[in-house]
Amino acid sequence: MNTTVLNPRRNPKCRFVPTFPDFQPLKLMQMTIKKLVEVCVYYSDNAMLSTLLPPPSSTLLNPPVSAFAFKNARRKMEDKYVIINDLHALFNIKDYGTASYYGVFDGHNGVDAAAYSSCHVHQYLVESPHYPHDPERALKDAFKKTDDRFIDKCNKEKRVA
């Protein structure tokens, strides 16, 4: 079995040589950090910054996003979140530019409502006849539809909503 391991002597450009049977993630991390430091030091001189290319348009359309969840004292994490950098591309909505969708759904005594909502609110939002020209009204429709359908689902499964 051939896997990839760092060996700068064999291929100085990419520093990977697929010859050894074991993968060494520590070496990979060390070489990556070392290269990152080299690049940062190189561009720390402001004169060198002008040689950088502009950021790709994908970075401008998909901004960096991070999420953090903290379980607190409960046994399980009951909250959910959704990050969709381009809702319009996901649902093939044209002529309205991009729209980001970020949702945080609180579990309150169980994960079921948060899980259902995190999977459906954005779908019901774009299905609303008011989206995208009246997003406030479309969100109200989406919340109502999500709530109604979740209650129906719980009733069918004989569970408490």
The level of helicity is 40-55%
Output the structural class.
mainly alpha
Order of neighbouring strands in the sheet with most strands: 1-2
Helix and strand succession?
A: EEHHHEHEHH
Number of helices: 6
Protein name: PPM-type phosphatase domain-containing protein
Organism: Nesidiocoris tenuis
InterPro entries: PP2C, PPM-type-like_dom_sf, PPM-type_phosphatase-like_dom
Pfam family, one: PP2C
Report what the structure shows.
- It comes from Nesidiocoris tenuis.
- The protein is mainly alpha-helical and 161 residues long.
- It folds into two domains: 5-49, no CATH class; 57-156, no CATH class.
- Helices cover 43% and strands 9% of the residues.
- It has six helices and four strands, in the order ββαααβαβαα.
- The chain has helices at residues 25-43, 46-49, 57-61, 87-90, 112-127, 135-156; strands spanning 5-6, 16-17, 80-84, 101-105.
- It has a two-stranded antiparallel ribbon. The protein has a two-stranded antiparallel sheet with strand order 3-4.
- Helix 5 (112-127) crosses helix 6.
- The radius of gyration is 24 Å and the shape is flat.
- 7% of the residues are buried.
- The model is unreliable at 1-9 (pLDDT under 50).
